[in-house]
Structure formats: structure tokens, C-alpha cells
Amino acid sequence: MVEIDTTKPHPARMYDWYLGGKDNYPVDEATGRQMFTLDPRVPVMARVNRAFMHRSTRWLAEHGVRQFLDIGTGIPTEPNLHRIAQRVVPDARVVYCDNDPIVLTQAAALLRGTDEGVTRYLQADVRDPDAILEGAGKILDFSRPVALSLIALLHFVSDEDGAHELVGRLLSELPSGSYLVVSHATADFTPEESKAATEKLKTAGVTLALRSRAEFSRFFDGLELVEPGVEVPQLWHPELGEPVPGQDDGVIPGYGAVGRKP
């Protein structure tokens, strides 16, 4: 039986609430509303991150990537990554990974009727990269390029947990021609609001590790950045998707980038 902890908020369920979903609990909504009081554009930020995932996945599929490992996928929201990729490459292989049991429940419903040899869900935590690599290796061919997607995830992984080292470990098993895709919140543009958000989430039991542009860029050390490099998410290849309503009404405090492993 799936055990779901409803006593404290979970980032995946808060993200679902921001997007207007139904797969969240009162504790997630309550914490989400606290974030909303600090910056009423939080739902716009969530949608901008989602749109960045859509555009980066489309770009990767159009540039020959046939395998995707999406860690921290969150509660499925249509169209999810496999829908985007498989519109371009029908036989694209996709492995989703998240540590919240409710995501497993929802993913089972989402993936019902799909080819399990093409799309699969793995319950694991990014802090256990060996478990992820072992599970993903059962469906993905690590001798061929893989896109490692970490959307709005790493700002929930502290330096003490070795965020940069975890990404390095995951990339170490992927061959030349693989890609890293990351979006990440930052305090660079809104330092006071970001400090307050970090403190509120810490009180609720959620780690928020906002990183500067330089700290974000470190995730791509040794990789070849795809143009336009490190950018605010809504300005990364905007021609590949539709703009999110409200995205230009103020700063979106985050970065997005895609890098290729040489």
C-alpha cells in the first residue's frame, strides 16, 4: 500500500496546486498560499517552468535525442514530457522519476495504455543517483545519448546534500552526445522575497536552496551550452512554444539552460 505523508508539504504537490491541479492536500495548499502572499506571481513562475520543459524537450527531440530521464517529474500535467517528445519521435524512450508516492499513483493512471517498453515511472530520490541509474538502465540504453531533465528540482537539494555532485554522478553514466536540462529558482532578482520564502519553507520542513547565476552555471561545468546559454526560462528559445500569460508582467526569478556532454 502506498504511504503518503500529508502532515507536511511536498514540492511536487505544491507545484500541482500552483498549476491548478487536484492532487494536493490542505498542507500543500496552505504552504502554497504563504508563498503566494510573498509573490502573487508564483503560479506564473510554475507555468513558465512547465513551458520551458515543453520547449527544451521539443528542441532535444528535434535535434536527435531519443531517450529522456526526467527526475523530479512531479504530478503529471498534460501534456507531460513523454507526450511532447513522442509527438516528434513516436518511439522515444522516457523514464520518469520522483520520490513522492502520490506521483507514482498518478503516473500509473497517466501511463495506462502506453507501451511500457517506451515510457516508465521509477520511484526514487535524486539523492540516490545509483538507484535511479540502475532502474533507468532497465529501459534506457546508456550507450546512446540521453537527455537528463531536472526541472524546478535542484533548488530543493542543498549543497550539504551535494547537489552539484549528484548531477555529476548522474551525468557520469551518460555517453557523449547526452544533454543536461535544468531550470532553477534564484534570489538574484528578488533577494528580500526569496529570503522570506526560504525561511517560511524551512519552517514547513521544505529545503529551498536558491542559487546565483554562477552557482547555477556550475551544473554545466564541462558541458557545451546550447544557445542562448544560461537565461531566464521564458527567454530560452521562445519561438518553440506559446508565451505564458503574465510572464512579462515582472521578473521571473530563475534560470534555465541546456548543455551537451562532449
Largest β sheet strand count, sense and barrel closure? 7 strands, mixed
Model regions low in confidence, pLDDT < 50 over at least 5 residues? none
Query: Judging from the principal axes of the Cα atoms, what is the shape?
Result: globular
The proportion of residues forming helix, as a percent range, comes to 25-40%
The radius of gyration computed from the alpha-carbon positions, rounded to a whole number of angstroms, is 17 Å
Order of helices and strands: HHHEHEHEHEHEHHEE
Number of strands: 7
Strand content: 5-15%
**Structural class of the helix and strand makeup?**
alpha/beta
What descriptive keywords fit this protein?
globular, seven-stranded mixed beta sheet, 37% helix, alpha/beta, 262 residues
Structure in words:
By secondary structure, the protein is α/β, with parallel strands linked by helices. Helix content is 37%, strand content 14%. The protein contains nine helices and seven strands, in the order αααβαβαβαβαβααββ. The chain has helices at residues 11-18, 26-38, 42-62, 81-88, 101-111, 129-136, 163-172, 191-203, 213-217, and strands spanning 67-71, 93-98, 119-123, 147-151, 179-185, 224-225, 254-260. A seven-stranded mixed sheet has the order 3-2-1-4-5-7-6, sandwiched between helices. The longest helix is centred in the N-terminal third of the chain and has 21 residues, at 42-62. The relative contact order is 0.16. The model has no long low-confidence stretch (mean pLDDT 90).
